Amino acid sequence: MALNIASGNRYVIVNTKSQTVMDLSGADSVSVIGWSRHGAENQQWEITFAGNGWHIKNVATGKYLRHEGGNQNGSRLIADQEPFVWHIWPDTHEITAGRIVVPSSSLNVDLADKGNLAPGTPIQIWGRWDGKNQVWHFDRV
Predict the structure, then answer these.
(1) How do strand 136-140 and strand 77-80 relate by DSSP bridges?
(2) Structural domain boundaries in the chain
(3) Which residue in 32, 75, 78, 93 has its CB near the most CB atoms, within 10 A?
(4) pLDDT given at position 69
(5) Gene3D superfamilies attached here (predicted)?
């Protein structure tokens, strides 16, 4: 089975290394962090095809996934009112999972500290490498 994302559906986005999920922080509703899965809407993301990529919108707040700052290693992911276009590509080693990529770059969404499973670990962008902390499963809700 290959990576299968259908536009307009909700997903829990799970890191393949840590098995923690992409979570919009309940503390500030801005920071995007790794957290244990609990099923609340702050861990659900609506993914919509935008013609030249994908918008990823948090279900709880309606804010869009983006990175703060420039296109550089370590820029953290946040949720913002303005849509941001991402590319989502199948991983070359794990075909049921994908990489979330900043367009026109080699920057991948990355669970920091090489995939630290501690709750609250920042999610950032980082140059592509073969680490599983840059690979994500999309579990349809």
Answers:
(1) unpaired
(2) 9-140
(3) 32
(4) 87
(5) 2.80.10.50
How much is the pTM? Answer: 0.96
Report the topology of domain 9-140.
Answer: Trefoil (Acidic Fibroblast Growth Factor, subunit A) (2.80.10)
CA dihedral 17, 72, 52, 85 (to 10 degrees): 80
Closest CA to 34 of 50, 56, 14: 14
Q: 47 vs 50, 62, 93, CA distance in Å?
A: 9, 12, 23
Query: Are 18 and 116 within 8 A, CB to CB?
Result: yes
The per-residue pLDDT for 1 is: 57
Average pLDDT of span 70-91: 97
DSSP 3-state assignment of 90?
strand
Amino acid in position 24: L
Is there a contact between 111 and 20 (Cβ–Cβ < 8 Å)? yes
